[in-house]
Amino acid sequence: MSRLKILYVFSLVLLGVLLVNTVFRPIATGDKYNELQRESLLETDAGWILQFDITNYEGEDKDYTVNVSVDGQLSTVTVTISNGETFTYIKDIHKELLDCQQCQVHIAVNKEGDATPVEQATYYLK
């Protein structure tokens, strides 16, 4: 066989190996991060319903602190979430209990030992 044919066959084999590696071994295999999911503020006749999920991908059980400030009034909840599990946070906000000076809801979720929130958001109520 000539050198050109050997080089051609070698190139085809190399291309096949690269294609198989691309399909069966993805290049980026990053870790999942903790996250808030399905974050929503639903309006009802009586007020609003705040709901979101926290999913723990830490590899071990972790404590999370949920700080929710409704029109300046802070409420704090600390929960332990097992690895790979999801915690659903639900809070009812009644219209008659608001004086609407600021009319806002601020959320901050912190992981145990971290000063930086995993997630934070502010909603403005009408």
What level of helicity do the residues show? 10-25%
Work out the count of structural domains.
1
Going by CATH, the architecture would be Sandwich
Order of SSEs: HEEEEEEE
DSSP summary, beta strand count: 7
Kindly provide the name of the CATH class.
Answer: Mainly Beta
Order of strands side by side in the largest beta sheet?
A: 4-3-6-7
Shape designation: elongated
Please state the average pLDDT score.
84
Largest sheet: 4 strands, antiparallel
CATH fold name: Immunoglobulin-like
CATH level-4 homologous superfamily: Immunoglobulins
The chain-level structural class is: alpha+beta
Radius of gyration: 25 Å
The DSSP helix count reads 1
N- and C-termini, Cα separation? 80 Å
Uncertain segments of ≥5 residues (pLDDT<50)?
Answer: none
Residues in β-strands, percent: over 45%
Note the main attributes of this structure.
126 residues; alpha+beta; Immunoglobulin-like; 4-stranded antiparallel sheet; 1 helix; 7 strands; elongated
Overall description:
By secondary structure, this protein is of the alpha+beta class. The protein has a single domain, classed as Sandwich (Immunoglobulin-like). The protein is 17% helix and 47% strand. The protein has 1 helix and 7 strands; from the N terminus they run αβββββββ. A 4-stranded antiparallel beta sheet has the order 4-3-6-7, with no helix packed on it. The N and C termini lie far apart (80 Å).
